[in-house]
Automatic annotation (TrEMBL):
Keywords: Membrane, Transmembrane, Transmembrane helix, Transport. Residues 28-207 form the ABC transmembrane type-1 domain. The keyword DNA-binding does not apply. One of its GO terms (cellular component) is plasma membrane. This is ABC transporter permease. CDD domains: TM_PBP2.
Amino acid sequence: MFELFKNLGAWLTSGEQWSGADGIAHRLAEHLQYSLLATLIAAVIGLPLGLLIGHTGRGAFVAINLASFGRALPTVGLVVLVFLASGLSMWPVYIALVALAVPAIVTNTYAGMTAVDPDVKDAARGQGMRAHQVLFQVELPLALPLIMTGLRLALIQVVATATIAAYVSFGGLGRYVFDGLAQRDLVQVLGGAVLVALVAVVLDLALSGLQRALFRHRPA
């Protein structure tokens, strides 16, 4: 066991391992690109849907059931299904990652909207605000802490799952996991897993810190 971790440390700190098209720096950039783009697409889909459901109160069952859908989604199975339908491209990966991220964004946005005090909304309407003004000037600002929590959770889930890009022969940190398994190289497999975990932890801590700084006078 000691020898394994010694070899892992050597693998992670080797200058050669960080350079080139197969180096950690390049694979990390690919992994972040997949993760951030998928989360951005999911936010474009999930935020308006969550705001609409939370503002109107209609379709609440969609937001509630999406949480269960996100937990039960067979990500690899979805990648394979889209891969068979569309061929070799990044579409299967992005579709699977977006489908994974949307439920967390929708449910937290909906929860944030429903947590706004009805009396506050009534007071805004009493002052002559129109529906869209109540939404964007009252409800959305008050719901932002939970909305940001949803975005953070979605991004961390996507980062942890973006290794599936390597399953269909693309890059990212998952390349080390799948190549290591194929080569029976336990150090490479463990190195890829450690890197993914570190990226997820660092992003989570950074976003949590940003959220606390932005809303330090408000409940998260």
